[in-house]
């Protein structure tokens, strides 16, 4: 499955996605909360420093943050810390840590995983709320995608059975972010292509949360969690980083398009938080248990063996070694310049808003298990993404 070709490609538009089935949910009208977002608020744009393009970017980011909040809430419900302070400014409005056996699998990655999950969830909720409030402060309409919350959550006991925006039970995860940040010679902005760290995650469909109580059964002989449940926790570990690497690149990519300096400050400030998330999850993914579950195998990334083709050597070791979690200096802007450690990609020619929606759709986040197709939220996000990518900085 060659997800990489479209994952970072800005040239992918709604028409081509409809042809390939990535928008199989079909076209739908924008919700009332999104209609006319920028035009009505900025009929007299000359009197405001914030442009229509700025509003388009903020609107798309708020929508994507609502999607991220939805998926992180599902992770926190099952694997988040239960001892959260009641004085927290953003109280998590749901029960957390409902699946202790799942948490056991997550703890293999790091002893603080439940707290990190709760904190990441809290952050994404705050990002969506803030961006909506900021949009309203500028006379624009806030984003609410709740009408598209139709996907069934985990059936583990205690999980509210209300519809969700995202599906975490049938994921196809691109893990090429792992090798992209280790490459000293290739940059996606300059056409670089990268291998997956866990090739099996990039094919088939894999749960990152326990689907029901049966997934939580302990081994009757050892009393330990099953390899299947550990594989679910491992999958979550790599999915955490997949989600957050998108925000790490998206915010600086779109920041080059904004006009108002305060809007630029908003994007750089929230984007920095997303980078912190990615760094954390990048580190934890390297600690997954080296197990197999059916057709899914988590390889030893410290073996100096390429899990994609079996090649060996120093270059292979550098591409997969688990403790190389800081961005390796690589080519940037022009190969003639000295290599530099950077976030990558940051060019909307290869990344940007449309590419983010494509990557989320290819990940399986919006797949309706009842139809085998994406829900209508993909078309809504694509419309907002195209408007955000079309924004131009005005001097």
Q: What does the overall shape look like?
A: globular
Gyration radius, to the nearest Å? 21 Å
* Count of separate structural domains: 1
Biggest sheet: strands side by side, in what order?
1-2
- Tell me the helix content: 40-55%
Distance between the termini: 43 Å
H/E element sequence = HHHHHHHHEEHHEEH
Question: What is the arithmetic mean of pLDDT?
Answer: 88
Labels describing this entry:
single chain; 395 residues; mainly alpha; two-stranded antiparallel ribbon; two-stranded antiparallel sheet; 11 helices; 4 strands; disordered N terminus
Gist of the model:
This protein is mainly alpha-helical. It is built from 11 helices and 4 strands.
What does the model show?
It is a single chain. With 395 residues, the protein is mainly α. The protein has one domain (4-390). 41% of the residues lie in helices and 2% in strands. It contains eleven helices and four strands; from the N terminus they run H-H-H-H-H-H-H-H-E-E-H-H-E-E-H. It has helices at 4-7, 14-20, 52-79, 100-107, 113-137, 177-180, 227-255, 261-285, 314-320, 352-363, 377-390, and strands at residues 292-293, 296-297, 367-368, 373-374. The strands form two sheets. The protein has a two-stranded antiparallel ribbon. The model is unreliable at 1-16, 18-33 and 35-47 (pLDDT under 50).
